[in-house]
Design a protein that fits this description.
44% strand, Scytalone dehydratase, variant 2, 12 strands, WD40/YVTN_repeat-like_dom_sf, mainly beta, three-stranded antiparallel beta sheet
Length: 132
Amino acid sequence: MFQRSCYVHSSAVQCQKEFRSLSNIVLFEFAGGIRCAKNVTIHNAAILSINAGEHWLGIGAADNSLSLFHRPQERLGSFSGPGSKMAGWQLYRTPQKTVAMVRCIASDLERKRICSGGRNGLLRLWDATINI
């Protein structure tokens, strides 16, 4: 453990401590009572939007990929597989990548929908094709 200054966004945030666990996960504890519990790489490009609900997590990235993760109520706290990056969460779908660079993402997690807007003006609504 050691003291370190951390900078988040355009304004400075004072970091009280930085911890490094045995599995090399970096934990930060900020003066405001918030800490980063885990860093996970899910996409190969910048993440444009995140929409989280109790059982749903929608993520849109600049590499034109969109992901919708689901965590069933009866599986809260369980693991989705050995060595899983996101314990308890299952990848529900990843729609096909588009040719146009995605610029914005919005998701309706209860209806299992993701809407993407491309740099070429194309707006796409991705709707679930199976029931959970």
